[in-house]
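Suppose a classmate hands you a notebook page containing two proteins, each written out with its sequence and a corresponding row of structure tokens. How would you begin to make sense of it? This section walks through that situation. The first entry is reproduced here exactly as it would appear on such a page.
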Amino acid sequence: MNKTIFVVLLLLVVPSALPATELLPNLKFGKPTMEELSMKSYLPDTSATAVVLCHLTEVSYDWGVNDFVVIYSHKMRLKILKPEGTDYANINIPYYYKETNPSREKITLVDVSAYNLEEGKIVRTKMKNSQANEERIDETYMQLKFAVPQAKAGTVIEYQYKCRSDFFGTLDVWKAQRDIPTLYTEYNAVIPEYFKFNIDKRGWERLEPTSEQIDMTIFSHGSTLDCRAEHLNFKGHRLPAVKSDAHVWCADDYCTQVKLELYGVNIPGRIYRSFSRKWEDVDRLLMKDTDFGTRMRMSNPLKNEVAALQLQQFSNPVDKIAAIYCLLKSKVKWDDHLMDAK
């Protein structure tokens, strides 16, 4: 056989023999690699202004003063590739804090650092936690804001924080994708046997899920509580960006994500409580909601005009819809501005 043909066939059959050029995930925070700092672009998406190199999320349960609490731990490493990507060094972390509700969340910064390559050496710039600011978004939510120092094209930024939440029955939705590419992301949740969750995985991108039963110890008021727990793990590799689209109302809804929905609580010494609901229960909850319910109870501003349509004369629902549509069309005028999908 001709040697040239043999070499070509060998490369086609054994691609692993080729030199590895893809960036591998680095899970050691506080120690960015020279490869991460020297990278100029992200090969799977060269248009990316930044890329998430590694995002680790851990969820665990602990005992608070009178009840369970949930501890979220986030570790993020991100590479700024272009000057436009410096916006990702401005971090906003929303959390629930309503003055009239004793149940709330608390954010604690662990570390915020920027790493730059200067004259062949890695230079770290650490942000003081006092430089972060808290501000109120609305009556329900606060946010923690900070800017990673010395962020520019070529910088690797890292930040770590924890969130302590009193809402042990409502776990945050874990989103594996962002509006920039993600090289590696991982979600770890350890859930005591007392909490029963349904797992809802959405999105198109592939995740690697595993689940196992483990032993768990919870410390409470100087004593320990031993129980079984379920350890859930999801890993995502080389996930593309979820980019906004003028024809999509909320592109974020289409990202790959994992949602844990509580359907029951069975804590020793308490009565079992089921959270599974019928549609009638959902209707009542929605109508009690201060936002959704208030809007639904609003009076119809076109009540007289709708009455004049005499919809009862139409036996076909399609004809009723057409009549209402024509009425609304005559009452609503377009101001020549498109609604911002963001």
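The notebook's second entry, a different protein, reads as follows.
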Amino acid sequence: MSAHPEISPGVQRLLEVARTRRRESLFGREQAAESVFAVLFVVAAILFAWLAPSDRELSPALAVALVLAYALVAGAEFPSGAGFGVPTQIVLVPMLLLLPTATVPGLVALALVVVSVVHVGRGRVARDRIVNSVADAWFALAPAIVLVLGHAQVPAWEHWPIYLLALAAQIAFDTAVSVARGWIAFDMSPRAMLSELRMAHRIDLLLAPVGLLAAFAAADQPYAALLVLPLAWLFMIFAGERAARVEQTLELSSAYRGTALLLGDVIEADDEYTGRHTEDVVELTVAIADRMRVDEETRRAAELGALLHDVGKIAIPKEIINKPGKLDEAEWAIMKTHTVEGQRMLERVGGLLARVGVVVRASHERWDGGGYPDGLAGEQIPLAARIVSACDAYNAMTTDRPYRRSLGVEVAVGELIAHAGRQFDPAVVDALVAHTRA
């Protein structure tokens, strides 16, 4: 197994955003949304605890013990996109069946506040984000309601259909509330939120039976439920190791990007025109990739490929790069080696940049197979390289070169359309033309 697990660009971006966001204070829209959800939860939890019937008295000592146990387990965070999963089911289920069920949502909120206070003290979370922990407790309300209405507030095997319904209600309600919070606070799409919740719900499903077994084992001796704490400690160790691996992967990815930017600066220092041209191609490439709605992996490859598509020109003699006239056959043969030289340089760096090297190598291939260096055609050419190729050509046509003046936007667009299906991917040309006319 690799010491640095692969993280997709989309997940990487979400992890970086989440890591930064938790340390920042709430902004206006988010603050208002989280405050409303927190207040509504407090009202709902109080009313539920007051109105719901219960067949047992609350034991303050047991409640404190389980709240602290829940807080301990909630500290085992498994990063997943902009959120994280926590193995709290091993304590939540015993709380629902060993304490007065109607009091559990409020106690879960208290446990989450304890966790947030600890995170604030460690500098991991901004102080005003404690309100988020109260809003995070909504998921505990649905299973408690199902258990109360189903008269299944104690461990008993005949209640298993109610237990299944309570788990389904928990996941469904958590999904609904989380989607609503994401949409209201960040205008985050429901699809993106569902993707973010996948790991958390998978953990809930897998650990709910463990929590149920703990509740049954502790039916006569409620404090026996605390025997799950060694398992919680094990989860914390695993969560810490996963978080460390994710952090290392993010740092490594940042180092690759920093290396790419440094190489971009080297290109600009080596040749001012090539440097300016590269910056323009990067900006245009990202815009076209976004317009085409490519996946995150392709978008990143296109962005870095555009940044480094000319890096191999460092190895080309200056008299060829800066020649005011057209290149002769021998000079052109040397010039065409820059894509191979670029890939070779990036392969020496390795990792992410080695994969970007494939895009750099293919950035002068043609849709009809007449390009260089490998004569790839059509979809044999990586999509990222096809985007870079068209954007590179468009920028070259619309800027002054050592041997000619700019052709102008309309002429360049006409050339792109004329060569669509021959030199360029027609879909990329359509997106590029639409972008220029937007």
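A careful reader of the second entry would note: Strands lie at 78-80, 83-85.
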